Fold this sequence. Notes:
This protein is mainly α. The chain has a domain at 1-27. Helix content is 59%, strand content 0%. It contains three helices and no strands. The chain has helices at residues 4-28, 48-54, 57-66. The radius of gyration is 25 Å and the shape is elongated. The N and C termini lie far apart (64 Å).
Amino acid sequence: MPSLPAQLSNSYGNIANALGAVKQQQQGQKGSVGMKLAQPYRSQPIGLQQARAMFDPSQFFTMLRQHGVKA
């Protein structure tokens, strides 16, 4: 029976092989419609007016006081 580090490295090897197979499959399907990967989340910037509407000074200063910030 292999030791724990050997089992972990074998697991990582299996994952790497699976990812390599997916990459090869995607490269072969460039011309056809394949599975689309999720795009990373990018937040949209907000304007100054929207930021001012979201900001509550009393809540902000209360949070500061609760965490030990003194005026």
